[in-house]
Amino acid sequence: MKLSILDQSPISTGATAQDALNASLELAKLADSLGYTRYWVAEHHDLPGLAGSVPEIMLSYIGSQTGRIRLGAGAILLPHYRPYKVAETFNLLGTLFPGRIDLGIGRAPGGSAEASLALSGNYLEGVRQMPEAMDELLSFLYKGFPDNHMYANVTPAPVPPVPPLPWLLGTSEKSAKLAAINGTAYAFGQFMSDQNGADIIKTYKEEFREKQNGADGKALITVSVICAETTEQAEAVASSQFLWKLQSESGNRSGIPTMDEARDYSYSAEDYEKIDKMRTNMIIGNPNFVKEKLNELAENYEVDEIMIVTITHDYQARLTSYRLISDLI
Q1: Nearest to 28 by CA among 11, 55, 6, 2
Q2: Is residue 46 part of a domain?
């Protein structure tokens, strides 16, 4: 099984955004040394506790200090941007780091309605035009335009020796079908979906259309995992994420709380119900338990690659989790 990482650059309480981004670099360097396949950084806008708003800048920073691992966006939120600009940006990254760049595309807003308005004006119109924007982006990068098209002679320079590999990220059958129609690879966000992901991946594979971009029907799933030496330690580490999500829902814009804060917090019955629901999309436990669950997911989804997202207060606990997981496969 291939293992990869999705990093949301969480900001811990008592830490700064710079601390979070430096921790992301350290995680990427560790992933490079441990043999992880990909390292993707997320795009979020004005969300409490998350520092990653411009993936392409982080990718250039990380790429300059790693040597092997594939780097990508998880994801560039296409409704906010013009396809040509995205093509230019990732062609430049592909020129700097040949054969290592993934271009993950998403359609989520990545933040509040107000942040979307400030970023791109009419986000909903961008969502409506997503199929056309995907086609335009892929035309710039791979298949070209007809001779009579207005962009026929426009090149998103520089052109890298190996083009970035396109991925569509999603949590629904609609996104899977869009990926299949366009011949891109597909990443299913199991960690934030309550849909039948195995059926969605199956739909993607059945409807995939071969294209000249190297995707070859690749599919992966992204899962939330916290691994520690013991189950008790893993549960304690996970408690920070649970409390952070509860606080975020209530409008608290603080960072990831400490385990002590999570232990001493006064939870309501409704809070416990929400935490139980969070657990359904997470794997929390010791190495043997995590290995068992990852293998079950890979078999159920019929994929050979799993991307892992891990949010902790303690950055060292996050590094430990990924070290332990890398030893499992």
Answers
A1: 6
A2: yes
